[in-house]
Amino acid sequence: MTKKGYYAAPLFSHMELEYNSRMVERIRDSYPQLDLYVPQENGAINDKSAYADSVTIAKHDTDALLASDIMIAILDGQTMDVGVATEIGVAYQAGIPVVALFSDSRQQGATNSKKLAALQEVAESQFPYVNLYTIGLIKSHGVVVNNPEALIEHIHIF
């Protein structure tokens, strides 16, 4: 039985586009029965040399998301991509489970006493921050993992 998925990730730099292409290839190889919608592959709205207005972009991507059985979200970046966060809210409201990747290396060292002590100093946190409201929406219907292998493994649960 074919399932539909939605891949949400930042897509505005060469690095992001290349990373997404590789992750999508790995997901498709692992789950050939998953019909995966990837916004960056939709040239009608995401060819940045062309024009698509905000309503057209929102309609295309939201329709694809609402038709999905699962959402795969990439949370990595300087901050979580605003579009991805918005899509997570749509998925939550629609009851679509989310498998999210947050692989920031600053998560390491949670037992390091110097890193923990630094939390008491203003602006010296050695750990990453991710919006807890958005994380709560994901965890209400899904999971957040910290490496690509776990992301791919958790897709089958949903």
UniProtKB/TrEMBL annotation:
Pfam families: Nuc_deoxyrib_tr. This is Nucleoside 2-deoxyribosyltransferase. GO terms for biological process: deoxyribonucleoside monophosphate catabolic process. SUPFAM superfamilies: N-(deoxy)ribosyltransferase-like (SSF52309). Signal peptide: none annotated. It comes from the Bacteria. GO terms for molecular function: 5-hydroxymethyl-dUMP N-hydrolase activity.
